[in-house]
Design brief:
The protein is of the alpha/beta class. The chain has helices at residues 8-27, 51-54, 61-73, 91-99, 141-157; strands at 34-39, 42-48, 82-87, 104-109, 134-136.
Amino acid sequence: MMLSQLSDESIHAHMGRALEQAQMAFERNEVPIGAIVVHEHRVLGRGHNLTEALHDAGAHAEMIAMSAAYKQYEDWRLEGAWLFSTIEPCIMCASAAVLSRIDTIVYGAPDPKFGGCESLFEIPTDSRLNHRCKVIGGVRADEAAKLMQSFFRQLRDRGQEVH
């Protein structure tokens, strides 16, 4: 089976792996977003947000997962790969996916404040770009959204600022 023909069951399972990464971020007091990169049914890269730990605004789950995938794939071009993210990738991450030649972006919950795939911008499908990614949104969205809501509720309960 070609990866472009992933079954709903496989897509659901891969998003489960991204959700595991999001839980790791949650446990580190990071915004709970997780991502994985899959190529030919093999996970090439995993990542979760590390912006607080690394003091790096670019340490998003998707960027970390793609960086790990570049090393495994031994190329920056991730042609044929799928990026799974628990939350709609932001503008930076959506752009990096396009530049990396990702085939398909699958995300869980939409991000109305920063979403770069469908909510605010449609970077992966913009016909002005030389590469486009397919986009599948809403996969296990309830689980991803609940994790985010729980995280931000916890911050508010502790009196921490919510950004």
